[in-house]
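Researcher: Here's a chain I'd like modeled. Treat it as a single chain, no partners, no ligands.
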Amino acid sequence: MDRRTSLKWVLAAGAAWPLLDRGAAGAEPMADAVGYGRDPDLMRIYRPGELWPLIMTPAQRRLAGILSDLILPADERSPSASAIGVVDFVDEWVSAPYPVHQQDRAIVLDGFVWLDAEATRRRGLAFSDLGASDQLVICDSICDVSRAAPALAMPARAFARYRDLTAGAYYSSPAGRKDLGYIGNVSLPRFDGPPAALLKALGLS
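Model: Modeled as a single isolated chain. Structure tokens:
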């Protein structure tokens, strides 16, 4: 089973997805950032950083883009994760002043710190400056929480959370929906139910 097929079957993405151009580099978080409250103006297009300050530094955004593309690289039918703005989504997500987002902020940014430290330990370079093969070796050591060494439990959890954010952002974007073959909001003359292969994979056939 290829990467995209497996992701299609396990992903449940419901994140909001404004693919807008990013302005200036993210600022430090502000103590009084309170978000949009319970009644945002749904008819308005909000620009990045308008609802709350964006916290990721240029170095963190560069690492985020590389990591996103290791998770979802470009292929013959779809662009890479960074090419469709996944880094902007992640920056907005970890910058949001809500409890779940603040928890993810600590997990993701601590994971970035670990990646740089591990890259420096192995090669004397930041993770973003390594070659692709060396980056993959490091990621392979933490890409499965169940198989990671006990000492790598924290970075493995961070990688898993970042992978979820990347996949959720990607497959709720126009390019991701196209890659999935999503045909929602279209009238169908008939519906034959879930594909047999999917039911079998879920143990429901």
